[in-house]
């Protein structure tokens, strides 16, 4: 078996079909489902994916579990709200079928869709590590995925499409839930509210919107850049609430899902 695609899911019924169709060329599709309460599992199984139910342990541990289940020589990570383009699929296929390659992993170019358009500016076209040799990658326990590849990493400059959310409210609500979870994780590590971080968040907005040209994407660019500021602002506000004992941490942040 040459390549396994791993997809983490929780309540992704509205996204999973598009995602799995885009990787139907793979030898194996493994869906690690964090106890979805919608039709995610049924849809994935109906499309030929191998679905494994596994309680959420944080993205790092969840991906480590998924990689351990994969059978392919290569592993491709795709989020449920992402879509592999035909051009990227062809590039991946060439890499994994080449007689030899100097790289143990590859970054791909992710493009983001928000408010009815693809964001071209503001730093929203980003390189993400998603393809690697299964025996050359580790995924340490963490709130966010932090893949570590033993070897050189190359780039495939073809787009991986990311559909941020169906609407602005859903996008921001999910983002703010994640910000609160991240604040709780940082609080347990000894971090506290920082006015400097809040000021840096405003600078991030200016850098993305003005200096990286986010304004060229119009209102979609404005709200996307504003989201980055608000994300940090919400996280700092939650740190302040925890510091002043206005709120308590009731469960392990690693176990909190934000979908």
Question: What's a concise summary of this model?
Answer:
This protein has helices at 16-21, 40-46, 59-69, 86-96, 168-188, 195-211, 218-243, and strands at residues 3-9, 28-33, 50-53, 74-77, 82-84, 105-114, 117-118, 126-133, 137-138, 148-149, 153-163.
Detailed description of the structure:
The protein has 259 residues and is of the alpha/beta class. It has two domains: 3-163, Spore Coat Polysaccharide Biosynthesis Protein SpsA, Chain A (Alpha-Beta Complex); 168-255, no CATH class. It is 38% helix and 23% strand. It is built from seven helices and eleven strands. The strands form two sheets. Strands 1, 2, 3, 4, 5, 6, 7, 8 and 11 form a nine-stranded mixed β-sheet that branches. Strands 9-10 form a two-stranded antiparallel sheet. The model has no long low-confidence stretch (mean pLDDT 94).
Structure keywords:
globular; 259 residues; two-stranded antiparallel sheet; Spore Coat Polysaccharide Biosynthesis Protein SpsA, Chain A; 11 strands; nine-stranded mixed beta sheet; alpha/beta
């Amino acid at each position: 078996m040459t390549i396994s695609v791993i997809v983490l899911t929780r309540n992704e019924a509205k996204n999973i079909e598009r995602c799995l169709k885009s990787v139907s060329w793979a030898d194996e599709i493994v869906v690690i489902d964090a106890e979805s309460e919608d039709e995610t599992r049924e849809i994935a199984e109906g499309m030929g994916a191998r679905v494994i139910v596994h309680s959420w342990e944080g993205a790092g541990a969840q991906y480590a579990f998924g990689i351990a289940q994969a059978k392919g020589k290569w592993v491709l990570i795709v989020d449920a709200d992402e879509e592999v383009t035909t051009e990227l699929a062809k590039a991946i296929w060439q890499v994994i079928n080449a007689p030899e390659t100097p790289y143990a992993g590859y970054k791909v170019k992710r493009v983001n869709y928000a408010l009815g358009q693809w964001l071209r500016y503001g730093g929203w076209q980003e390189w993400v590590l998603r393809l690697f040799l299964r025996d050359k990658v580790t995924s340490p326990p963490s709130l966010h995925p932090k893949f570590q590849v033993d070897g050189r990493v190359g780039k495939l400059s073809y787009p991986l499409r990311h559909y941020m959310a169906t609407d602005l409210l859903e996008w921001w609500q999910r983002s703010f839930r994640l910000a609160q979870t991240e604040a709780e994780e940082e609080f347990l590590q000894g971090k506290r509210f920082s006015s400097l971080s809040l000021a840096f968040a405003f600078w991030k907005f200016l850098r993305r919107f003005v200096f990286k040209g986010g304004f060229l994407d119009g209102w979609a660019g404005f709200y996307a850049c504003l989201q980055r500021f608000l994300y940090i602002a919400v996280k700092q506000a939650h740190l302040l609430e925890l510091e002043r004992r206005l709120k308590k941490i009731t469960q392990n942040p690693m176990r909190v899902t934000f979908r």
